[in-house]
Design a protein that fits this description.
- By secondary structure, the protein is mainly beta.
- It folds into two domains: about 180 residues; about 80 residues, Translation factors (Elongation Factor Tu (Ef-tu), domain 3), CATH 2.40.30.10.
- The chain has one helix and 17 strands.
- The radius of gyration is 38 Å and the shape is elongated.
- The termini are far apart.
- About 0% of the residues have low confidence.
Length: about 325
């Protein structure tokens, strides 16, 4: 190639380069991008809400804002006064997990255990007369009350040589001025000069709690017609002879009485295998018969005495 042609070729290459530069060319062919986003991440705790229904009203654990607080005011399960039969007495209890997470157990205890005592109010004056031959007496009025009256307590009204015993159908606290009693017609025209006092308390100090056997049985929603036969499980209150499925009836155990209910540390209810804790799935209800069996006989040491206890229920997620 001649010098002239070479010079022209180089000038042509230089011109092409200038044009490429003018068009913004950088020597890069392309730029690719791929992207993804994980949005809306969060952590939230679930809830355990226990609903308790003893046949009348439902009390709810979420009705208090305090963590781990115990809700009071649930149904009274037993009001047996006077105790006159040796047949078992049954109460219905429905427990529901109204929260959003499953529980790993159902536990219960009797805070403070079972207490036994006689009526403890002091004598007071009748404040409204009780005419003989009048309407049946359903309320006793008095000037004031020192002590308290419990359901089933015997109240003795005396005037001169006349006396009559009434049975309280409602509790009366200290300073109360009246108490409801089982309907009965007065046997004498008692005036405001009459005295109300405890009915005789016998010299014995029998622990009624130790005489009343206690058990918990899981049933269907119809509570098996107040019978442990065909129970789903014998949940609490049985000795070494616990029955196994299929159940023909959960039996009371003489070593499981109100006197030895768990008072401080709650214990777990058990499923049908007698070892697995009973659980409560979120949104689920389970149904229990709570039974108390009186002894075949009681001596005078147990006259005019009462056994009193509370039942506390909890569910956990652990």
């Amino acid at each position: 190639m001649s010098k002239t042609k070479t010079k022209r070729y180089l000038m042509l290459l230089a011109a092409v380069g200038l044009i490429a530069a003018g068009l913004g060319g950088t020597g890069t062919f392309a730029s690719f991008t791929a992207e993804t986003t994980n949005a809306g991440n969060y952590f939230a705790t679930g809830t355990l809400f226990l609903h308790n229904n003893g046949g009348t009203t439902t009390c709810t654990s979420e009705s208090t804002l305090a963590n781990n607080a115990t809700v009071t005011g649930c149904d009274v399960l037993f009001h047996v006064a006077p105790l006159t039969s040796t047949s078992p007495v049954w109460a219905h209890l429905t427990l529901t997990n109204a929260g959003s997470i499953d529980s790993t157990d159902i536990k219960f205890n009797a805070p403070g255990g079972c207490s036994f005592a006689a009526s403890t109010f002091s004598s007071t004056a009748l404040a409204a007369p009780l005419p003989v031959g009048g309407n049946p007496v359903t309320t006793l009025h008095f000037a004031s009350l020192s002590g308290s009256i419990a359901v089933g307590d015997a109240i003795l009204v005396t005037e001169g040589t006349h006396a009559q015993t009434f049975t309280a159908t409602a509790a009366a606290a200290a300073t109360a001025t009246s108490v409801s009693v089982a309907s009965v017609t007065a046997n004498f025209s008692y005036t405001t000069g009459a005295t109300l006092s405890n009915a005789p308390t016998f010299t014995g100090a029998g622990n009624l709690c130790s005489q009343l056997q206690f058990m918990i049985v899981e049933t269907g929603s119809n509570f098996n017609g107040d019978s442990p036969t065909g129970a789903t499980s014998c949940s609490y209150g049985f000795g070494a002879t616990n029955p196994t499925p299929p159940y023909t009836g959960c039996a009371f155990d003489s070593s499981k009485t109100l006197a030895n209910l768990p008072d401080v540390s709650p214990v777990q209810l058990l499923d049908a295998d007698n070892s697995t804790p009973t659980t409560l799935v979120a949104g689920q209800s389970r149904y229990f018969l709570i039974g108390i069996k009186p002894p075949a006989s009681l001596t005078n040491a147990y006259q005019n005495r009462r056994a009193q206890f509370d039942l506390h229920w909890q569910i956990d997620q652990a």
